[in-house]
Write a structure and sequence with these properties.
Blueprint: H1 2-21, E1 32-33, E2 37-39, E3 43-44, E4 52-57, E5 64-71, E6 78-82, E7 85-86, E8 89-95, E9 100-107, E10 118-128, E11 131-142, E12 145-152, E13 155-157, E14 163-171, E15 176-180, E16 184-187, E17 192-195, E18 198-202, E19 209-213, E20 229-232, E21 239-242, E22 244-247, E23 251-255, E24 265-269, E25 272-276, E26 279-291, E27 294-298, E28 301-314, E29 317-320, E30 332-335, E31 337-340, E32 346-349, E33 352-364, E34 370-373, E35 380-390, H2 397-400, E36 406-407, E37 410-412, E38 419-421, E39 426-429, H3 442-447, H4 449-452
Parallel strand pairs: 2-11, 3-11, 12-14, 13-15, 14-16, 14-17, 15-18, 16-19, 17-20, 18-21, 19-22, 20-23, 21-24, 22-25, 23-26, 24-26, 25-27, 26-28, 27-29, 28-30, 28-33, 29-33, 30-34, 33-35, 35-36, 35-37
Antiparallel strand pairs: 1-4, 4-9, 5-8, 5-10, 6-7, 6-9, 10-11, 31-32, 38-39
Length: about 475
């Protein structure tokens, strides 16, 4: 019996001894890290960042004990979660042989009363067997103008620092908001810019006004649906947008309502409307003059002109390479009615006084990128002239064969060479084979010389008397 007891005791001591031997205490032992620097894109002051992760590896065949993990600075900017424990300082953390642990990192920057971003630096220190290692932390904090559910009276917004809008905002009746070149507007999720009065966006070449979501991290650069978009309400008049980038919303520009008492109006030029979940432009019985614009990559429609109205589009590029979901609808839709019977039991119809497309491109990945909805006893006046069109001629042959609606059309298909690299949002014309080369009508430019003689990057369309289609003149040495 004593021999058995002695054996059990010896075995226990042996096990304990083996466990102690598995702890690696060599001072030359090093941890490995997934990166030597954790970088955050610019974050708004008072608004927390996304969570970044750092992975720590033990590459050895024995357990390592990290004596301490801690932030160097004592500021409240960075926050750590070490293997499930929220703490900026933690001691005696074991990593078993050939194992790893995670540290999750966030940052919040306090207001700094400066217009330019400020750099925030810190380090995470790791002490293992008296050996000190570190991983650097870097972030940039940007002060902002914060607006929370506000009514806007007549005022001017400058480009000193970004505007952050939460819970939407409204430009009130008879009031005007002027936004100067270089200004940046960021909208939180589900926020909307409502315009009852007048919106004037005055960007310029290489200094556009940008309207987008509130996340500044690189991964959100072209993510649709981050905010609701701009809504021009019934009666909103004299709106003008020049050199703007409107991106990553549900609907970029939503103009008018089912039944307008006073048709809202908009002039838009030299602008990009891109990456929207539903539509770039959705207009109901409205008035739009668009020149030198690129409308691209939306989940349903690039542009829907619904329930009548008055529209002119010159030298515009409609290009839909949306690939985040199945897209069955054509990129461009025109109707003189709205069937809302499933919504409120009503059917609405208004005259389509004009829907004119000149020197433009309508192209995308679907076989047919244009669609119509017509109520026979209501005016339905539209014309495509000198337009490159992706259209299924068997599906809408009756419309396409009508010379009162289609003149000097360049038909394209899936194999057509149009753009340089549309998958990377480069809608410059292919320099060798683009079907849009020299197909424009100079008379349209003569009608609107101040708007159309130069393309959206200030290139002269009239130098060879053969303007190209779309918003961008082809880049050639002889032009």
């Amino acid at each position: 019996m004593k021999n058995i007891s002695f054996f059990i005791l010896s075995f226990f001591v042996f096990v304990i001894s083996c466990q102690k031997e598995t702890i690696l205490d060599d001072p030359s032992a090093h941890l490995e890290f997934s990166t030597d620097t954790v970088c955050f894109d610019t974050v708004f002051t008072t608004i927390g960042s996304v969570t970044q992760e750092l992975k720590i590896y033990n590459r050895y065949n024995q357990t390592l004990v990290i004596e301490e993990i801690k932030l160097v600075q004592e500021y409240d900017y960075f926050r750590l979660n070490i293997n499930g424990t929220s703490a900026n300082n933690l001691k005696n953390i074991e990593i078993e042989a050939k194992d790893s642990l995670y540290i999750f990192i966030e940052v919040t920057v306090n207001p700094n009363l400066q217009n330019a971003p400020i750099e925030i630096l810190d380090s995470i220190i790791f002490i293992t067997n008296k050996n000190v290692q570190n991983v650097k932390l870097q972030a940039f904090g940007q002060d902002m103008h914060l607006l929370d559910g506000q009514y806007i009276n007549t005022q001017i917004w400058q480009a000193d620092k970004p505007y952050y809008i939460i819970n939407s905002m409204l430009i009130d009746s008879l009031e005007t908001l002027t936004i100067e070149a270089g200004a940046k507007l960021h909208f939180s999720r589900n926020s909307t810019l409502y315009v009852k009065g007048t919106l004037l966006i005055k960007g310029d070449y290489e200094n556009e006004v940008i309207l987008q979501g509130s996340r500044l991290e690189h991964i959100y650069t072209d993510v649709a649906g981050q905010w609701n978009g701009i809504v021009f309400l019934d009666g909103s008049q004299n709106n003008e947008i020049d050199y703007a980038i409107i991106k990553n919303a549900v609907i970029g520009l939503n103009i008018g309502f089912i039944k307008n008492n006073l048709r809202p109006s908009l002039k838009i030029s030299n602008s990009r409307i891109e990456h929207h979940t539903y539509s770039g432009i959705y207009a109901l019985d409205s008035k739009i003059l668009a020149t030198n614009c690129i409308i691209s990559n939306c989940g349903y429609y690039l542009t829907a002109l619904v329930n009548g109205g008055n529209y002119e589009f010159y030298h515009c590029t409609f290009s839909n390479y949306w690939n985040l979901s199945v897209r069955n609808e054509p990129s461009l839709v025109i109707t003189n009615f709205l069937d809302a019977t499933n919504f409120n039991g009503q059917f609405y119809s208004n005259p389509l006084e004009k829907a004119f497309f000149g020197n433009s491109i309508v192209y995308g990945t679907n076989i047919n990128e244009i669609g119509f909805g017509k109520k026979e006893d209501i005016q339905f006046n539209y014309l495509f002239e000198n337009v490159l069109l992706k259209a299924d001629q068997s599906e809408i042959s009756e419309e396409l064969n009508n010379i009162n609606h289609f003149k000097s059309i360049v038909y394209a298909n899936n194999s057509s060479k149009i753009f340089v690299n549309p998958m990377k949002y480069n809608f410059n014309l292919d320099t060798i084979e683009s079907l849009a080369k020299d197909k424009g009508n100079l008379n349209f430019i003569n009608s609107y010389p101040t708007l159309l003689q130069l393309d959206m990057i200030k290139k002269d369309r009239t130098a060879d008397f053969k303007p190209d289609l779309g918003a961008l003149e082809q880049k050639e040495k002889n032009k």
